[in-house]
Design goal:
With 341 residues, the protein is of the alpha/beta class. It has one domain: Arginase, Chain A. Helix 1 packs parallel to helix 10, helix 3 crosses helix 4 and helix 8 packs parallel to helix 9. The protein binds zinc ion (ZN). This is Acetylpolyamine aminohydrolase. InterPro entries: HDACs (IPR000286), His_deacetylse_dom (IPR023801), His_deacetylse_dom_sf (IPR037138), Ureohydrolase_dom_sf (IPR023696). Belongs to the histone deacetylase family. Its cofactor is Zn(2+).
Length: 341
């Protein structure tokens, strides 16, 4: 299977992460890259670098205002006396008026949902190329190359059209799905990350042409807390085109696979002709976030379940943090898919 990655994605190296009132090392480490590369290669993936498709396919999902902020904010932040080396807001307005602050600090609060998405010198370039990798994966599929794996990192599924959050800046899965949609296909996004894909949901919430489905640990007691509940079903034309399947903390393989069956039935009933898998691997029993308890065997079965759909699949990397099984979990998904396809 073809895999896509660009070395400029190494440039994002976040330092800070705040949890439970403590400043901790950020878990979205560049070291994830080599573990995921090894995991993909063990499943027979051959990596190539993406072309530069420009900002158009990214701006098809993100606002020009947000992209302007994201490209320039690190440079602007340096003009603040005594500023730190990462852009982290100290205000997160839950309700935003129509007004748009002029200051770097105000705009940072406007466009960064939490403290888990610090922006440093290389963040924009890394996220830009992570998105280009996703676009490259979509183009590979459109060119008839078949299913592919995108090592998109930094990840994307918590990023809304105008809002970064939870380690995410540009929504790679949404950008890829929109690219496929613009080429006349009818995509469904299935998000198997342990965290709800709130940004992806937000981007397509009022649309009926891209189905969004997410399986995740119940947000009543798990990030992102404010999205991911079963009653969020879309709005307007999109009502009924968003499906959330929150799972009890610690759910094992059987519970996860049962919910995935429900998700894939919905994909079929959408008439989807291509699937974007928002491939978080942090539902693993070994993941430091400890939300769900999917085993390596479970990840093989997840891969096989996607193969059983009989549709081309674009696997877009989301979360999944350093543990002894991170690379193996990726190998298992891709092997499970290829064996059953
Ligand atoms: Zn996650």
């Amino acid at each position: 299977m073809k895999a896509i990655f660009d070395d400029r994605q190494w440039l994002h190296d976040p330092k800070h992460f705040m949890a439970n009132g403590k400043i901790l090392p950020n878990p979205e480490q560049p070291g994830r890259i080599e573990v995921l590369q090894a995991g993909a290669r063990a499943a027979g993936c051959v990596f190539e670098t993406p072309k530069d498709a420009g900002l158009g396919p990214i701006a098809a999902v993100h606002t020009a205002e947000y992209l302007t902020f994201f490209k320039n904010i690190y440079r602007r932040w340096q003009y603040i006396d005594g500023a730190g080396d990462e852009v982290i807001p100290n205000i997160h307005p839950a309700r935003r008026s129509d007004g748009y602050p002029k200051s770097a600090t105000g705009q940072s609060g406007y466009h960064q949902a939490d403290t888990a998405c610090p922006i440093a010198k290389g963040t924009y370039e890394a996220a830009y190329w992570s998105a280009q990798s996703a676009i490259g994966g979509a183009d590979h599929l459109l060119d008839g190359g078949g299913s592919a794996y995108v090592l998109s990192r930094p990840p994307g599924h918590h990023a809304f059209g105008d809002l970064a959050g939870g380690f995410c800046f540009l929504n790679n899965s949404a950008i890829a799905a929109q690219r496929l949609r613009d080429a006349g296909l009818r995509p469904a996004i299935v998000d198997v990350d342990v965290h709800h894909g709130n940004g992806t949901q937000g981007i397509f919430y009022d649309r009926d042409d891209v189905l969004t489905v997410s399986l995740h640990a119940d947000p009543d007691r798990f990030y992102p807390f404010f999205w991911g509940h079963a009653q969020e079903r879309g709005e307007g034309r999109g009502l009924g085109c968003n499906l959330n399947l929150p799972l009890a903390r610690g759910t094992h393989d059987e519970g996860f696979l049962k919910a995935l069956g429900t998700a894939l039935e919905r994909v079929s009933m959408h008439g989807a002709d291509v699937v974007v898998v928002a491939l978080g691997l942090d539902a693993s029993i070994d993941d430091p976030f400890q939300g769900l308890a999917v085993t390596q065997d479970g990840f093989s079965r997840i891969g096989a379940a996607f193969a059983a759909l009989g549709l081309p699949v674009l696997f877009v990397q989301e979360g999944g943090y350093l543990s002894d099984s991170l690379g193996k979990n990726l190998t298992r998904v891709l092997d499970g898919y290829q064996t059953a396809a």
